[in-house]
Amino acid sequence: MELEQRINAFVKLGAFLNQFQNNDVVKNDSIEANDLFFDGFKHQLKLAQEHNGWFTKKNITFTLSNWSNALTNKNINQWISKYNFNIVKPQTVAIIMAGNIPLVGFHDFLSVLISGHNVLVKQSSNDKHILPFLAKYLEVIEPEFKGKIKFTEEKLNNFDAVIATGSDNTARYFEYYFKDKPSIIRKNRNSVAVLTGEESDAELAALSDDIFRYYGLGCRNVSKFFIPKDYNFDAFFNAVYKWHPIINESKYANNYDYNKAVYLMSEFDMLENGFLMIKEDDSYASPIATLFYEKYNDLAELQQKLETDSDKIQCIVSNGFTANEIAFGDTQNPQLWDYADNVDTIDFLLHLS
């Protein structure tokens, strides 16, 4: 299959997903194979919501909107323009996917197929309904994908390389188990924000999206912020208030109540506003409904600290703090060329031998 065929197939998939990015799903009769797949995909989205309480309709449609916007001819060609796909010798790449947010492993899936390899997918039980259906859509609109996409719930066999995502504990297992295979092994990471106290209300409101989107379950969600010693939290609490309806969602509220009880019983100092707790803590990974903070004396010292801890950090949200920073509100809107853990997946896939 030629590269252009693969690009065209994913562009068509993006057009298909475009129908499902709003609360009011509207069928577009011009979409290829829509009569075969439209109603079925609506059903799969319903199953995904029923199976995983964190996969709300709002979160799923946000994901589908992002992928619909990403999968355009312009974006895909901009992404792959710097690579030489003529050197690829097709192999089978296994992907072990996480299930913390909807379609969290789709970028790896896309990367393997756009590179010309075959893919063997082992999904998380938390996110098993959406991707297999989209794979079937790809096989119908581009029949040469047939035989190149497989899903399994069994032990992985007959593969040449692996991309695996998990916790720090499972990563150690992956590193041992796949030690004889070319691999990308992803561990726990979290995202942070660096505030100076000069942020506008709009920037802080945008930061709240980085904190609360997907309930904070993604590695690109801000779980901690760094603040100057004399920081006044009033502006921050005012700006994030737009997310207060989140406390009406039972799974989030249960976590809020549980973590609040733990903090109170342990007599930890914290601030809270009825739907978010903020607590001073050295850790990067904060529980649901909690945001950690740490005070800094000097921005240069903080830069050095974050560079030292770079293997724990996915994104840094700031304004003028570092070269690779993410703008406020943009952590959950990555581009195709924004690689997880800053590891170039396409380069890895093109140089398998």
UniProtKB/TrEMBL annotation:
<dbReference type="InterPro" id="IPR008670">
    <property type="entry name" value="CoA_reduct_LuxC"/>
</dbReference>
<protein>
    <submittedName>
        <fullName>Acyl-CoA reductase</fullName>
    </submittedName>
</protein>
<dbReference type="InterPro" id="IPR016161">
    <property type="entry name" value="Ald_DH/histidinol_DH"/>
</dbReference>
<keyword id="KW-0521">NADP</keyword>
<dbReference type="Pfam" id="PF05893">
    <property type="entry name" value="LuxC"/>
</dbReference>
